[in-house]
Design brief:
The protein is an alpha/beta fold and 199 residues long. 39% of the residues lie in helices and 27% in strands. It has helices at 20-29, 31-39, 88-114, 150-162, 171-180, 184-191, and strands spanning 2-6, 9-13, 43-45, 54-57, 60-68, 73-77, 80-85, 119-123, 130-133, 138-142, 194-196. The strands form 4 sheets. The protein has a 4-stranded mixed sheet, covered by helices on one side. α3 packs across α4. The two termini are 27 Å apart.
């Protein structure tokens, strides 16, 4: 049996012929966990510029405003994030370029701190924040990583750089991660508060 909490709802999965009392007992056994999940919902990040009224950028939620303009512009005023462009398509493409530039800046900080070099690329993943291809000396970051707070962005980049030395999450991986990111346990826990909303 399994329990899933999503969008304020609790889903229980059980084999077809499982007696109801067993399901009830299973749910009661996990009442505390369910309550924690319902009281601390995950922050879903995604940007669907055609339909969204709100958007996350660097860990803060903004009202999303779009305006027609010959040139792309990105502005933050009070609690609003304002995007200008010729069409929704061009705004979206240019916004992704803007996010890539922000993430590149943070990746460059890590490169300077660790005195390493690697190629950087970007993609919208549906279930991960980043990916390392050590043989290609390449890290691919999710555009949506720019929705998260600065500290978590840096943590993800640190995490991926350690994969150049260690492919798996074994003891040596975490020992090396701790050397460059002493707060990694706290940051890993905070990262779990965010999830990519599948569209």
């Amino acid at each position: 049996m399994a329990i899933k909490v999503e969008d304020g709802q609790v889903f229980v999965y059980a084999p077809l012929l499982t007696p109801e009392f067993m399901i009830d007992n299973f749910v009661k056994k996990h009442e505390k966990w369910i309550a924690e999940k319902l009281n601390n919902p995950k922050i879903n990040v995604y940007f669907d510029l055609e339909n969204d009224n709100e958007i996350y950028f660097l860990g803060k939620k903004y009202k999303l405003l779009l305006f027609t303009s010959e040139r792309f512009k990105f502005l933050i005023r009070d609690d609003s994030l304002i995007l200008y462009g010729r069409s929704i398509r061009s705004i979206k493409n240019n916004y992704k370029k803007y996010l890539a530039a922000v993430l590149t800046q943070y990746a460059d900080e890590v490169k300077n701190e660790l005195d390493i070099d690697f190629e950087l690329s970007f993609k919208i993943y549906k279930s991960r924040w980043g990916c390392c291809f050590s043989r290609k000396n390449l890290i691919i970051l999710n555009y949506l990583l720019a929705c998260l707070p600065y500290e978590l962005i840096k943590y993800v980049i640190y995490h991926e750089t350690v994969h150049f030395k260690h492919g798996n999450h074994q003891k040596k991986f975490y020992l090396d991660l701790k050397k460059i990111c002493p707060e990694y346990k706290r940051l890993a826990k905070e990262l779990k508060d965010y999830t990519i909303l599948k569209k």
